[in-house]
UniProtKB/TrEMBL annotation:
Positions of modified residues (2-(S-cysteinyl)pyruvic acid O-phosphothioketal): 126
Pathway the protein contributes to: Cell wall biogenesis; peptidoglycan biosynthesis
EC numbers for this chain: 2.5.1.7
Catalyzed chemical reaction(s): phosphoenolpyruvate + UDP-N-acetyl-alpha-D-glucosamine = UDP-N-acetyl-3-O-(1-carboxyvinyl)-alpha-D-glucosamine + phosphate
Pfam families hit by this protein: EPSP_synthase
HAMAP family from the UniProt entry: MurA
Name of this chain's protein: UDP-N-acetylglucosamine 1-carboxyvinyltransferase
Keyword Cytoplasm assigned: yes
GO molecular function, one term: UDP-N-acetylglucosamine 1-carboxyvinyltransferase activity
InterPro entries membership: Enolpyruvate_Tfrase_dom, Enolpyruvate_Tfrase_sf, MurA_subfamily, RNA3'P_cycl/enolpyr_Trfase_a/b, UDP_GlcNAc_COvinyl_MurA
Binding-site list for UDP-N-acetyl-alpha-D-glucosamine: 102, 171-174, 316, 338
Gene: murA
Function field: Cell wall formation. Adds enolpyruvyl to UDP-N-acetylglucosamine.
Origin species: Roseibium algae
Length: 429
């Protein structure tokens, strides 16, 4: 199993290209199930989750082809992925495939909308909480589906097709918003989603669905209205920049010092996290090509944060921010409100000398003047990268094991950081 070795102490200077967002790419790929024509996605990141989802989609009958190329500076550009679901050959999404990735459960919406039936295993994904699927079930039932849970599978049927309705989520859910929005595009009549997720990835999916012929208004606000159509057609869509990757590298520079241009990054996708970073003493400037992030030798100021749905501080940056706060000049409080078990990085950061204690949903971090490198274990995707950020600033060598988590969501992490002066390498065993 591969591990990542980081020798801390180097500043980061240079350019980091920001990839297309994993969390937009996955629902966009799933949207290909809604049409028998080709959906072409550009700026697709090379990630384990993307490869995994192509397997799941091909099991349903989706043909796909991938093209990637290098630009003039020998920099890899995002891939172009063409997906064609001319015929759906299987409406079952099996446990062996779905258990590896939470987002694969979302195929339930398009399969039901197009084929009027689906049998989808209950999902897996990052072990950061119980992560139930009740909002999906209630939402699809509101659109007229009969639903049964059978031996770990959600079995949905709507023999006469789905019918638009009002769907109100008790709590904001990104995945349930994606799924109901996709299902509603082919339902009869109007669907209104209340308390919809406003995340940029929902807007990106809505834009792609609109390009495919869907009638959707209000994506990016808490109320989305979808007027069902008879069929969707093929389209070309470029995946939005990854705001979590952007925030992660911005925090890495805030940690090590230096100056980085995050090429292709968009400030409007992560205002709250950038505001917090500015309060820590990091300078962030918008430029025509991306975001410039700079921190000189001055210390890191402690800042309290609470994770919230967009436009609040994202839970997917909580672990990385905690890593940064381990070196702050004082105490900070980090409150996680989205997932009940998303502090697994705390005990690993402690191995590096971080001083953190947990009080319910809040982690209280007392900044230390130095971290010391040590062997640590990645527990989930964002936790893994928080250990890399801590390792970049720790004295000596940090070895992060179980990096397969990292490969789910960070494209060429070692390569991007090495080019900016970090001492980081993958060790295969
Ligand atoms: C692939 C992808 O895009 N993953 C993101 C997505 O996950 P995901 O879509 O799984 O997360 P949700 O937004 O659905 O989860 C938000 C909260 O709602 C709860 N909930 C959700 C559905 C449901 O039926 N019942 C229920 O109780 C969850 O347990 C959680 O407490 O949004 C999360 C929140 O921004 C991010 O951390 C993940 O990176
Ligand atoms: C939690 C994440 O992914 P998933 O929802 O696929 O587990 C994530 O991207 O941080």
């Amino acid at each position: 199993m591969d591990s990542i070795k980081v020798v801390g102490g180097a500043q980061l200077n240079g350019i980091i290209p920001i990839s297309g967002a994993k969390n937009a790419t996955l629902p966009l790929m799933i949207a290909s199930l809604l049409t028998d024509e080709t959906l072409t996605l550009s700026n697709v990141p090379r990630l384990r989750d993307v490869a995994q989802l192509t397997q799941i989609l091909s099991n349903h009958g989706v043909d796909y082809s991938v093209n990637g190329k290098r630009n003039g500076q020998d920099e890899l550009e995002g891939q172009t992925l063409s997906l064609t679901a001319r015929e759906i050959v299987d409406t079952t999404a099996p446990y062996e495939l779905v258990s590896k990735m939470r987002a694969s459960f979302w195929v339930i919406g398009p399969l039901l909308a197009r084929m009027h039936e689906a049998r989808v295993s209950l999902p897996g994904g990052c072990a950061i909480g119980t992560r139930p699927v009740d909002f999906f079930i209630d939402g699809l039932a509101a659109l007229g589906a009969d639903i049964e849970i059978d031996a770990g599978y959600v079995v949905v049927k709507a023999p006469g097709g789905l019918v638009g309705n009002r769907v109100e989520f008790p709590k904001v859910s990104v995945g349930a918003t994606h799924t109901i929005m996709m299902a509603a595009t082919l339902a009869k009549g109007e669907t209104e989603i209340i308390n919809a997720a406003c995340e940029p990835e929902v807007v990106d999916l809505a834009n792609c669905l609109i390009a495919m012929g869907a009638k959707i208004e209000g994506a990016g606000t808490p109320t989305i209205r979808i007027q069902g159509v008879h069929r969707l057609h093929g389209a070309h869509h470029a995946v939005v920049a990854d705001r979590i990757e952007t925030g992660t590298y911005a925090m890495a520079v805030a940690m090590t010092g230096g100056e980085i241009l995050l090429k292709g990054a968009r400030a409007d996708l992560l205002h709250s996290a950038l505001d917090v970073l500015r309060q820590t003493g990091t300078e962030i400037t918008e430029t025509p090509t991306g975001l410039k992030v700079y921190r000189n030798g001055n210390g890191i100021q402690p800042v309290d944060i609470t994770t919230e749905p967009f436009p609040g501080f994202p839970t997917d940056l909580q672990a990385q921010f905690m890593a940064l706060m381990t070196r702050a000049g004082g105490q900070s409080r980090i409150t996680e409100t989205i997932f009940e078990n998303r502090f697994m990085h705390v005990q690993e950061l402690a191995r590096l000398g971080a001083q953190i204690h947990i009080d319910g949903r809040t982690a209280i971090v007392d900044g230390v003047s130095a971290l010391q490198g040590a062997p640590v274990m990645a527990t989930d995707l964002r936790a893994s990268v928080s250990l890399v950020i801590a390792g970049l600033a720790a004295e000596g060598e940090t070895s992060v094991s179980r990096v397969y988590h990292l490969d789910r969501g960070f494209e060429r992490l070692e390569d991007k950081l090495t080019r900016c002066g970090a001492q980081i390498e993958r060790v295969s065993s």
